[in-house]
Amino acid sequence: MTTSTIRPASDYPPGGDAFRHRHLIGIAQLTPWEISYVLDAAEEWVDLNRSGAAKHDDRLAGLTIINAFFENSTRTLLSFEIAGKRLGADVVNMHAAQSSVKKGETLIDTAMTLNAMRADAMVIRHGSSGAVQLIADKVDCPVLNAGDGRHEHPTQALLDALTIRRRLGRVEGLTIAICGDVLHSRVARSNILALTLLGNEVRVVAPPTLTPPAMERMHVRVFTDMDEGIKNADVVMMLRLQNERMDGAYLPSAREYHALYGLTPKRLEKAKPDAIVMHPGPMNRGVEIDSSVADDPVRSTITEQVEMGVAVRMACLDILTRRKRGVVGWN
Amino acid sequence: MELKPLHITNAQLIDNDTPRPGSLLVTGGRIAAIDPTELPDGTETVDAKGQWLAPGIIDLGVFATDKPAFHFGGITRAALMPDNGPLDGAGLVERAAKGGKPDLWVHPLAAATKRLEGKELAEIGLMKQAGARAIATGRARIADSGVMRRVLTYAASLGLVTIIHAEDEGLTAGAVATDGEMATRLGLASAPAIAEAIAIARDLALVE
Fold first, then answer.
1. C-alpha dihedral (B39, B40, B43, B47), degrees to nearest 10
2. What gap in Å lies between CA A150 and CA A245, rounded to an integer?
3. CA A187, CA A206: separation in Å to the nearest integer?
4. What is the pTM of this model?
5. Which residue of B has its CA nearest to A151?
């Protein structure tokens, strides 16, 4: 495993100019250097997380972080919770299932309630595109988008970029194929934005029923043939296919999807010999990806992505709370 | 009640294209003159203090008789869509027609089908007698072409206009935006613009 050089802080504008955002709503608002600033910051946390027993840094001690998840999540919620706790923050989780959302409270009322509890940062996931921005506009603390509808999932794109950079030594000038249900995927949208912004050739490989309209306007090449689409790719990024898409509405069957778009060892031969395989999880083994590919320790980065997720989220929480903590140069 | 002649002065008149300073005389509830030179006896004068004076706006597609909204929007006359209720019976139409009085004219549009379900003809003739000026399909179109054909011919025989919701329900299911780069970037469920053209094409073919 190669590790890339971390750029020194002197490569970036001083203080808060290195990352000029109050919230992290999407990759769409970021510049290329802001992305690499976060990635470089995350590298530090990778080292800490691997350092053995005492994986603690108390720079967020005394701050309250609310993870408000209006849509079910296991790994993203856990990842944000661990990230907050490793930085010493007091982390509380709000699940929609237990909340007053079920009692008919409006989203803005819920946001105002959370705001009144004086959170120092909020991490929000919601099933509707734009909901996180709506909340960010109403509250007084930094808001991190943990996924809104089919719009954006910025920390996923950042952790994917970090994983690629660590595995291949760079995340620019690469050919990256994003394959599967792009239509319904916030992971795909954030990754398309981040990876094109960093200067990669991004391809979208999907059945026509799962390709969003005007896709080429996002500077990607669109393929409906999987073998063509992953040809000579450096990175094959698979997306999860939701079960409810397979019942005939968008696709005839899971079996047919696997035959045409499933990542099999044979199909992977079309990509570059050292191409890596990514998946944001949770996987449908035998549908979009074969177990032998998913579990290949050389090609598959799936567990590494999860590891990078914690580091990237620590970096985001640290950077976005600097103003509140009065870090010099961040005001 | 006898209406006094009313002279509105110092207004910005909106007539053809540009606002222009002027005054206006109303007698017997109707516009009698613009920039009148002589005024009848007992004329009441109102100084508009340079504010705009425009014809009342007619809104042909409202979903509720919301008097404050009409007042602020300058709407004096409206056609009320049948969705609220829905307006599928003569009594409901008659009551809706009175809903704006005395300040506004509200013209109810009768539901084309019972409960606006797009399956059975509503009592269109009786609703016409109760004051309906046209029939409408509400916020959705009638998906069944056979039903739509019967609605159109029946309404035509009564001399009523049919107001359609021009949207193919299959193409627009779940959509909140029109297909395109912006919808894709914002992650919004979208529908192609032809959803409208298809619905209009079908109904035009049916009336031919």
1. -10
2. 14
3. 14
4. 0.86
5. B187
